[in-house]
Specification:
The chain is mostly helical. It folds into two domains: 41 residues; 94 residues. Helix content is 85%, strand content 0%. The chain contains seven helices and no strands. Helix 1 packs antiparallel against helix 2, helix 4 runs antiparallel to helix 5 and helix 6 packs antiparallel against helix 7. The radius of gyration is 18 Å and the shape is globular.
Length: 143
């Protein structure tokens, strides 16, 4: 499943980019739109169908996920480079882990357990915190 959903699409993209750069530029935006749309629908579906289990994770789990995310973002900001723009990209990119991959591993490895709900909850929290950070940087932080 990991090969079919992660490795093959990534390899196909690298090959097309290398062999047909004009085609890859032409396909980039449509593939981004399709990918983001499917991601939004998938996350919305899991969130709505499993809302009770996600909301019931408990305050300790939410606090732990939030603290790990914020500590990661802070450390990534400190180590992320010399310019504010580079630091922002590194901080957000590394503190927001690959939610889709984590969910795939959770569902396949821990089928029937609460692990998948924790991953979805963490993903939602990371999205929310990321939006707060981007808003702060855009309106209140120095360029």
């Amino acid at each position: 499943m990991l090969v079919a959903t992660i490795t093959l699409p990534l390899a196909a993209g690298v090959i097309v980019r290398r062999r047909a750069p004009v085609l890859s530029e032409w396909l980039l935006r449509p593939v981004e739109v399709i990918s983001e749309t499917l991601g939004v629908f998938s996350l919305a579906f899991v969130t709505t169908t499993q809302f009770g289990a996600i909301a019931g994770l408990g305050w300790r789990a939410w606090l732990a996920m939030g603290l790990v995310s914020e500590v990661s973002l802070f450390l990534d900001w400190l180590l992320g480079g010399s310019t504010p723009g580079t630091r922002r990209v590194v901080a957000l990119g590394t503190s927001n882990r690959n939610i889709a991959l984590a969910l795939l591993v959770a569902v396949q490895s821990f089928h029937g357990s609460a692990v998948a709900y924790g991953v979805v909850g963490n993903g939602l929290l990371l999205i929310g915190l990321g939006l707060l950070h981007v808003t702060w940087w855009r309106f209140f932080a120095a360029p």
